Amino acid sequence: METLFSYHPRDLLLFSPRVYWTLVAGNNEVYWPLALLAPVVGLWLMWTLAKLGQARQRTGLAVLGAAWLFVTWSFLWAEYRSINWAITWAIGPFVLQGCLLLVLAGTAGSTSIPARHRYLIAMMLVAWGTLIHPLGFLLDDRPLGEADSWLLFPDPLSITTLGVVLAIARGRWLALSLPIPLLWSLVGGTTLLGLGSPIGWGMLAGAGLALAAWLPLTR
User: Which Pfam family is an annotated match for this chain, by its short name (predicted)?
Assistant: First the structure.
């Protein structure tokens, strides 16, 4: 038992922090326009949640769905898979999540703001994923080029998705759209802690908040 508790998340990693953040920096360099646009689009996404209207919400969901498909191809498949063979198992769920969000974007969106506590949690998650999470490079003493933004990387994208889905989706669509970003928030948060980044605690806390907002709705 003592041996079990001696394990640290870093013991499960197949790569070093230097290798991972170099991968992130390379992806930012290739797709730098998206890295610059990410916080602006994040603010726009929060605006869509603050305003009633199906057209705005559908557009937000469509952007989110496209981001899942793009991140799957540009980072998970083309980059991350080269240092982590286990990531191959995430490709299918990520594509499924992107497709779910695109289908949800094509259905009738919500025309009312959800319960106050749920809405506040949703907005906090979107703000964290789009604006705060990328600032983790400051805590880790990494260069700006290694900041991970939500339009390019799965960790902040999953937290952002939790917030958007909680704010917009209802019924079965909510139940279908939450599990994959929830699971990745746990995986990503644990990975970041293994890399020595305290921002991983934010991902785990975000998953906990999303669960706290969702579980009462399943009863």
Answer: DUF6064
Cβ-contact 184, 86 below 8 angstroms: no
Q: Is 92 exposed, middle or buried (0-12, 13-18, 19+ CB in 10 A)?
A: exposed
83-109 per-position pLDDT tens digit: 999 899 999 999 999 999 999 888 755
For 31, 74, 124, 127, 129, the CA distances from 202, given in Å and listed in that order, are 25, 24, 11, 12, 9
Residue 23 has φ and ψ, to the nearest 5°, of -65, -45
DSSP sequence for the chain: -HHHHT--GGGG-SS-HHHHHHHHHHHHHHTHHHHHHHHHHHHHHHHHHHS--HHHHHHHHHHHHHHHHHHIIIIIITTGGGT-GGGHHHHHHHHHHHHHHHHHHTSPPP-S---HHHHHHHHHHHHIIIIIGGGHHHHHT--GGG---TTT-HHHHHHHHHHHHHHH--HHHHHHHSHHHHHHHHHHHHHHHHTT-THHHHHHHHHHHHHHHHGGGG-
pTM value?
0.90
